[in-house]
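EI: anyone free to look at a 319-residue chain?
SC: sure, send it
EI:
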Amino acid sequence: MATKRSTFLYLAPIRGITDHLYRDIFFNHFAGFNSAVAPFINPQRLSSFKKKQLFDVLPENNEMPIVPQLLHTDPDDFLALAARLQDLGYQHLNWNLGCPAPMVTRKKRGSGLLPYPQEIISFLEQVIPRLKAKLSIKTRLGLEGIEEITTLLPLLNDFPLSEIIIHSRTGRQRYQGQADPEAFNHCRKLSRHTLIYNGDIVDTDSFSQQANRFPEINRWMIGRGALADPFIGERIRGNTINEDDQGERLATFHAELYNRYQIVLSGPGHLLSRMKQIWAYMGQSFPHQRKLTKKIIRSKNVDQYQRAVAEIFAGLKPF
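SC: here you go
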């Protein structure tokens, strides 16, 4: 499918999977994506944020362009981390108002802050005048319901935000049920900012449906759809993909991931856990081989895992 040259695609942050290693290997093997938002950096109280804490976003660990993401809700703590990231050369930062994890929302962070619009406005009033970098927001429709985002968006119009990424689900939904593009459409009418659509873009058909629905939107974020089909960015841009090469490209991508994680993760248990997380998505590239993908997910040791992976890549074509 052909699309406008101006179309901008972000790889979404998926905590536990899209770390710097995954992102760089992904970008080296598959085209179509312009940038990635990194998973949020764990909040620390006025920390100096040494290299160990910032390892995932250090420029030397990231060949492809990324936007670091902050979860802080205390202005001083936020600014301390922002200053450190600016020292590393980052000129665009993202504030996470969308994380749906209960351990985050209970602390009034991520989407847990959305029911409190005045606290969000107070935070921005203290942060933006002291922030040198551009600031964007990644959010949801609300923690409980759309009335939260529809209350917030008009209040944000006077702030110089670079863009607002809206995942068209509530925090309570987490990743269940369907995204709500009609709710996004309502948000579009309330905001003067550049909006980015996120939610249930899993193939060219679902992208086309939203692109036709929102012709003025040219910036998009894709998460689970990209993990399930790493070719999705190329497909959206209308690139020709040799069907005979798809299995080989996935196999090469997997091999590099496996070998790199084998080096950096501590022991076969951690390696197996990480690769199973990846296959929970990538297995969708092999819809006709569900028994084999289940075999991978159920493997109890790396030997079983390697045999199952070899079997699925042995002359099998994905999709």
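EI: Strands lie at 8-11, 35-37, 66-67, 69-70, 92-97, 134-140, 164-167, 195-198, 219-222.
SC: 👍
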